[in-house]
Design goal:
191 residues, 3 domains, three-stranded antiparallel beta sheet, 6 helices, 30% helix, rod-shaped
Length: 191
């Protein structure tokens, strides 16, 4: 069996319409028009770009639609596992180059993970890398706690008598200030 043909969205729309014709699109008129590259109206005119063999394979239903990427979309390069946000038209045009066969739209989970990674990296930390002096707020009680000690088990906060497991901290606390950004420690503004 031959390899799937990659079609643009417009070509796929035309093929779907043609497949609805008598004999699943294999009419003498459709074959003649494709051989002579005489499709005239939209979306059919885009089929003039297809070689005849690819046209036949597509009409048989063995095709896939090329993904469309827009500025602002998040994509994943499966060869490097990188999740990338398309910043501008030039970036998008680079990604839709036929040499980039490992690019696909990123899933919502992949996007959320990458956004979290970028946020922590912007602050010079690995994801959920906490340090003594960081301030965290409980999402339940809205109280703010200072991190006193971090262990392999979890985190110890000022004013609490027991540690909290890392998984609980990640789920129920938000970082509101990193230790290096605090003005009330390390000399603050008193210099």
């Amino acid at each position: 069996m031959s390899e799937k043909v990659k079609l643009t969205r417009e070509q796929a729309e035309a093929i779907r319409s043609i497949r609805g014709d008598i004999n699943g699109g294999f009419t003498p008129g459709n074959i003649r028009t494709q051989l002579k590259k005489q499709w005239m109206s939209k979306p059919y005119a885009t089929l003039n770009e297809l070689p005849f063999e690819q046209f036949i394979v597509a009409v048989l239903g063995d095709y896939e639609v090329e993904p469309i990427f827009e500025v602002g979309d998040w994509v994943k390069d499966t060869s490097t596992n990188a999740v990338i946000k398309i910043n501008d038209r030039q970036h998008r045009n680079n990604l839709i180059d036929p040499r980039h066969t490992t690019i696909r739209h990123a899933t919502p989970e992949e996007i959320a993970e990458e956004k979290q990674h970028r946020w922590w990296a912007k602050h010079g930390r690995e994801v959920w890398e906490l340090r003594d002096g960081d301030l965290l707020r409980s999402t339940d009680t809205k109280k703010t706690y200072e991190l006193n000690n971090q262990t392999s088990y979890g985190a110890w906060f000022e004013g609490l008598t027991s540690g909290i497991a890392h998984r609980v901290v990640k789920r129920n606390y938000k970082v509101i200030c990193f230790a290096e950004d605090r003005k009330d420690i390390n000399g603050g503004d008193n210099e």
